Amino acid sequence: MIELNELTDAAQKAFPADALSPGRNESWRLVAEMGWLMVRLPEEDGGLGLDREASAAIHFEMGRVLATTPLIPAQLGLQAVLASEIAARVEWLERLAGGEYAPLHLLPAKLEAAPNGTLSGVVGGVFDADMAVAVVAKLPGGYALVPTDAPGVSIVERAIWDPSRRLFDIVLDGYAPDPALMLTDADGAAALHDALAPEAHLAVAADCLGAANAALELTIEYMKMRRQFDRPIAMFQALKHRAADMKARIAVAEALLWNRVRDDAATLVQCAAAKTLAAEAFAFVTEEAIQLHGGIGLTEEHPIHRFMKRAMLNLQLCGSPDLWNERTGREALG
């Protein structure tokens, strides 16, 4: 059985903290070689058979380096295929565990069905679709694998602020869904979404907190080095208090994250609350970090701005903080 500290050590050796946003292709090769694509795949299906605490630990470490590899949607895509009963299930599991990429897309797609059954419209906001062999998307008939090289399928990149990620729209124009690639029917789509959405929330939360810790460490190192009035600014009591506030926000969010990760009975709203708290803490830490860096924090030459850009995107992933704060409040009061 692989221990969590072994996963953490392997991640830190493969992706050292001083190398932010390593190249996507090389990172993907490393991720596949270390077996992280199949970390949640049961042993009887050829995987590592680990739980979501293990995958969260990996996402935490990948957040630390602002990883460019789309590990979260890849793992979710494999879990979607695992939950299906398609005839080629074993073949697809082997392909995805071996390094092919088929991300899960949980957002509603804007699609229209023609009388002949073909689909046209946009599956918007797919991470790194340019390297995908297929996308797991919700079609009118249920979740399905949509091959990116199929007739009627094209990929258009969408410009985003976060340089550590790439986002694409999948454009369907008369695409004819393959019945053999339908992972669920229309009735089963909601069940698959509700089963995997909590996993997505916890993965993004772990990414947020790994990155928030790295941003805080970077800030403290700068405060130790930067001098004013013949002493490091880390000695100024007011700045110490701000750094302590940053650490406190991270610690609270981490406590909730690991509680939800270890609680198999945690609901979607409870997992979403953990993600929201983590994303808000990440945003707070990066905003404070830029201010504590002073003028250099506003330049592209210093890497701290990259943490803020990732934080701003993470805030919106899996639903906005306003949405989930409201739902969390209603559930608590109900």
List keywords for this structure.
single chain, 334 residues, alpha+beta, Butyryl-Coa Dehydrogenase, subunit A, domain 1, Butyryl-CoA Dehydrogenase, subunit A, domain 2, Butyryl-CoA Dehydrogenase, subunit A, domain 3, 3 domains, two-stranded antiparallel ribbon, 10 helices, 51% helix, elongated
Outline the structure in words:
- The chain is an alpha+beta fold and 334 residues long.
- It folds into 3 domains: 4-97, Butyryl-Coa Dehydrogenase, subunit A, domain 1, CATH 1.10.540; 110-187, Beta Barrel (Butyryl-CoA Dehydrogenase, subunit A, domain 2); 188-333, Butyryl-CoA Dehydrogenase, subunit A, domain 3.
- 51% of the residues lie in helices and 13% in strands.
- Strands 1-2-6-5 form a 4-stranded antiparallel beta sheet, with no helix packed on it. Strands 3-4 form a two-stranded antiparallel sheet. It has a two-stranded antiparallel ribbon with strand order 7-8.
